[in-house]
């Protein structure tokens, strides 16, 4: 399973952190959409976002900007109770989070939300040395819990990272649409769900 904007609403948490960051420094609240666009849902590199913010906010220290990017989302993200309930329902499955990102930041999100007590393991790209959609990170996820990928399912919101990665390994996949339409023609998810709760309910438990 994917982490950001799948199991947790990473963008909402980061947006809340950015709003506080701007307010504390007397910066225009109207800059929030600009920062969110620069962040690209977490897919833009930290260095690129930091450079863009340094240029736009020259009177803000680089340390403060790095602090926002390092801990802003991790400190504010929450796990919806319905998601926790659905994870508990997945009896008979071994559940592993597969996430791209820096180890300290992603692990903080997992621990701060209590996901560490609801899943069997996790693999983070920085530590694994591979990023989704590379097959090695999915194999590492299986190895983390002493399992194989035979019969595995992948749930995620990224067509490229999650669904293409699953397709390359022949895994059953669920794309979490989050209000978007599927636009890829080279591969397809096995299922489409509007949100993570619906996605988790598609996973058979018997």
TrEMBL record:
GO biological process: small molecule metabolic process
Listed GO MF terms: hydrolase activity
Required cofactor names: Mg(2+)
Keywords, comma-separated and alphabetical: Hydrolase, Magnesium
PANTHER family: N-ACYLNEURAMINATE-9-PHOSPHATASE
UniProt-recorded name of the protein: Putative hydrolase of the HAD superfamily
Organism: Actinoplanes derwentensis
């Amino acid at each position: 399973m994917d982490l950001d904007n799948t199991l947790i609403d990473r963008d909402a948490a980061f947006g809340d952190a950015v709003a506080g960051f701007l307010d504390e420094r007397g910066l225009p609240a109207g800059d929030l959409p600009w920062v969110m666009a620069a962040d690209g849902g977490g897919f833009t590199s930290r260095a690129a976002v930091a450079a863009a913010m340094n240029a736009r906010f020259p009177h803000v220290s680089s340390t403060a900007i790095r602090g926002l990017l390092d801990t802003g989302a991790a400190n504010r993200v929450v796990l919806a109770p319905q998601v926790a309930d659905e994870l508990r329902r997945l009896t008979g499955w071994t559940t592993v989070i597969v996430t791209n990102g820096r180890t300290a930041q992603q692990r903080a999100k997992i621990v701060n939300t209590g996901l560490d007590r609801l899943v069997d393991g996790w693999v983070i790209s920085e530590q694994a040395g591979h990023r989704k959609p590379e097959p090695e990170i999915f194999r590492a996820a299986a190895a983390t819990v002493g399992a194989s990928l035979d019969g595995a399912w992948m749930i995620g919101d990224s067509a490229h990272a999650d669904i293409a990665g699953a397709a390359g390994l022949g895994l059953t996949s669920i794309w979490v649409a989050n209000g978007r339409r599927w636009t890829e023609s080279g591969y397809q998810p096995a299922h489409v769900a509007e949100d993570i709760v619906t996605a988790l309910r598609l996973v058979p438990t018997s």
